[in-house]
Amino acid sequence: MTEPITPSRPIVLYGKGPLGMLTKEIFDKHMIPVAAHIDRNDFTRGTPSKAEKELKKEAVVIVCIASEPYNPIRLMLRSKGWGAEGKIRRIYDVFEQHPELGITSGWKIGKLSHEDRSGIARMLPKFADNTSNRHWVHFTTWHRGRGDMALNNMEHRECLPSTLADIEARRHVFLCKDEPMGSVSIHAEGYELDTILVNMPLFQKHRPKIDAACYHTRDGLWKIEKALMDGLPNYRWTFRVHAYQGQGAYVYGVPTEKIEMAETLHASFKSPDFHGITLCHRDKKWRADVYVDRKKYYGGIHKTPELAARAYDGLAVKLLGDKAWLNFPKEDK
Q1: Would you give the DSSP letter of residue 162?
Q2: What DSSP character marks residue 270?
Q3: Which of 80, 113, 294, 323 is at 20 to 30 A from 124, Cα to Cα?
């Protein structure tokens, strides 16, 4: 059942980041009263007044944060006395229940049709890595039943400006120019699929790197991804989620010829005799780097490959101990 946007209890917005500020702007536009707008910094203040204690107990608290899982935030708010008699809600549930507010990315999957099942079955195997499948499951779990499990190694992606004016400026089908394209980013606030279909002949001609937002409408369940995969063969496709509450989901595509070119270029920077070092072509010196759990540790710039290789070995032993794979055996040191 749809809950009223102006309940009998006072509304408190939690979160003062871009999503919180956008929500406040939307509520002000629709003349929805907000009793307080808070974030975690407000919890460090002194003893609350009687009025503040009453507000904490009675308020409907709307969580306006998508950079963290929802449930830990809800439990934290409960532990501090918020929403004891009122309710704690996700902002995207509010947006989904009230389309008049103009934000579409709180959509629910609902019942899967035969077309949905067929489209998903054809799309998923085309992702290039298992991480893509895990991220897609995470994304669809929220849009199906609001499950918001934690996701390891979520990569940060820069947020686009998110005022109402910014969103309206992006909300349309845009046409690309018929000219060489290095990369194309499609973020059209719900018009991604139409933008892809309109520009597909140009994408096929110029074969750019491409990414497209999948979270604004239900098209992102599979139609956006499949339209790109069907229209652009010989691409490497991945899917990544960069936020919680079903937000920040993108499909990424790179032409295989550009991957092969990059791999060839990268190989030209490597030493044929030592591992863990690369040539800095600009100054003709050698750089040492050690990778541990996908994190890169810098080992300095050196005049010769051998010096760089020994620097690599020293850093590798420091970081990995006996597990280090060395250029020079320990007994030769």
Answers
A1: -
A2: B
A3: 294
Instruction: Measure the CA–CA gap between 60 and 219, rounded to whole angstroms.
Output: 31
Render pLDDT for 59-86 as a digit per residue (tens, 0 to 9). Answer: 999 999 998 899 999 999 998 888 877 6
Which of 204, 224, 259 is the last residue before a domain boundary? Answer: 259
Range of the domain at 64: 11-101
Q: Enumerate helices (H) and strands (E) in the chain, giving the number of each.
A: 11, 11
- Do strands 36-38 and 11-14 pair parallel, antiparallel, or not at all (unpaired)? parallel
**CA 182 vs CA 157, 251, 254, 258: distances in Å:** 19, 17, 10, 10
The predicted-structure confidence for 16-54, as pLDDT tens digits, reads as follows 999 999 999 999 999 999 999 999 887 766 666 777 888
DSSP 311: H
pLDDT classification of 272: cutoffs 50, 70, 90: low
What is the count of structural domains for the chain? 3
Residues 96 and 139 in one domain: no
Is 320 within the bounds of a domain?
A: yes
Same domain, 236 and 162: yes
Question: How far apart, in whole angstroms, are the C-alpha atoms of residue 287 and residue 304?
Answer: 9
Tokens 């541990």 label which residue? 292
Whether 182 and 196 have beta carbons less than 8 Å apart is answered as no
Q: Of 213, 239, 259, which closes a domain?
A: 259
3-state secondary structure of 195: helix
Angle formed at CA 282 by CA 277 and CA 288, multiple of 5 degrees: 15
- Residues 6+ away with beta carbon under 8 Å from 48: 56
Q: Choose among 117, 122, 124, 115: nearest CA to 237.
A: 124
CB 248 within 8 A of CB 215: yes
Backbone phi, then psi, for 121, in 5-degree steps? -65, -30
Task: Say yes or no: 166 and 274 in one domain.
Answer: no
Structure tokens at 158: 């820069």
Q: Find the CATH number of the domain harbouring 290.
A: 3.30.730.10
